[in-house]
Amino acid sequence: MKVICTEKSQVLATHIARALKTTVVSVGYSRFPDGEHYLVTGETDDEMVIVGSVVDNDSLVQLMLLADACDRSTNHLVLPYMAYARQDKRFRPGEPISSRVVAKALSTGVSDVTTVNIHEKEVLKSFTVPAQNLSLAAGIGSYIKTLGLKKPLILAPDEGAMHFAENVASTGGWECDHLEKTRLSGVEVKMAPRQLSAKSRSVVIVDDIISTGGTIATAAGMLYQQGAKDVYAACVHGVFTGGAYARLMATGIRDVVCSDTIERSCSRISAAEEIARAVRQR
Ligand code: R5P
């Protein structure tokens, strides 16, 4: 078994390879003069682990080309982050179900797929090969332990993220709640934990994705107004569009971290061990 990866998932792929006690196959990436992608792989194995987060359209094309380049192997596809997964329905007539399009495209040439905290588990059904989803709740819990906080309150930004937050909280036996929005007037919205008070407490907001950072920035501001001692944020996928990380830090959040499903300088939680364990069982 060997590992191969797209350009933007090199660090995670290397850590997965180490955990699997194997190597990463080298890939030469370049472009044709018209901008089309070209790649050529080094020596592949009968069994390959193809690692690549779909973080942009280039990564998507590189993944499809890698699967084809490894077409004489059994290919296990690892999709740590899958862009387009949030467009999992036709919200308006005329829209595509983008998650389905990507899932179908990436099922070609692979024997199975492993995702990590995919936005909606229903998306797994759109792959035409067996697909499993892993959770990094335990990894986020381990990171929170390193902060040395006294009885932190683990908060989900909304009810939908509560299950994930509960799994994180259970790793440390911490209290958990989710934020609730109350409309005070036409322009004023209040966000507060549904049941517990944040006053004088260290709060860690956990979510699957931080994209614009809008959800967490608003929540952090309100939590400080309610007397929170300090606020932290941890997510699996640090998308951080349009200056989101800087905007979040400007709210007074003590720290914002993510995992290496998208490789960032604030990737302080690794999905490598979890992925290696799951691949070994394939
Ligand atoms: C939503 O369903 C997700 O779990 C995240 O809460 C959302 O994607 C975060 O978006 P943003 O960072 O843009 O507020």
Explain what you see:
The chain is α/β, with parallel strands linked by helices. The chain folds into 2 domains: 2-135 and 270-280, 3-Layer(aba) Sandwich (Rossmann fold); 137-260, Rossmann fold (3-Layer(aba) Sandwich), CATH 3.40.50.2020. It is built from 8 helices and 14 strands. The protein has helices at 10-19, 57-69, 98-107, 137-146, 162-170, 214-225, 244-249, 272-280, and strands spanning 2-5, 27-31, 37-41, 47-51, 74-79, 112-116, 131-134, 153-156, 175-183, 189-193, 202-210, 230-238, 255-259, 267-269. The strands form 3 sheets. Strands 10-9-8-11-12-13-14 form a 7-stranded mixed beta sheet. A 5-stranded parallel beta sheet has the order 1-4-5-6-7, with helices on both faces. α1 (10-19) packs across α8 (272-280) and α4 (137-146) packs across α5. The model has no long low-confidence stretch (mean pLDDT 96). The protein binds ribose-5-phosphate. Ribose-5-phosphate binds at residues 157, 160-161, 207-215. The site of ribose-5-phosphate has 12 residues, from β11 and α6.
Short description:
Helix content is 28%, strand content 28%.
Any descriptors?
282 residues; single chain; five-stranded parallel beta sheet; 14 strands; alpha/beta; Rossmann fold; 2 domains; binds ribose-5-phosphate; globular
Count of alpha/pi helices: 8
| Coarse structural class | alpha/beta
Total beta-strand segments = 14
Biggest sheet, in brief?
A: 7 strands, mixed
Q: Which ligands appear in the coordinates? A: ribose-5-phosphate
> In percent, how much strand structure appears in the residues?
25-35%
CATH architecture of the largest domain: 3-Layer(aba) Sandwich
Mean pLDDT metric: 96
- The CATH topology of the largest domain: Rossmann fold
Percent helix range:
25-40%
Task: Tell me the span between the first and last alpha carbons.
Answer: 12 Å
Q: Give the number of domains.
A: 2
Give the SSE order as H and E letters.
EHEEEHEHEEHEHEEEHEHEEH
Q: Regarding CATH, which class of the largest domain?
A: Alpha Beta
Shape: globular
Question: Order of strands across the biggest sheet?
Answer: 10-9-8-11-12-13-14
Radius of gyration: 20 Å
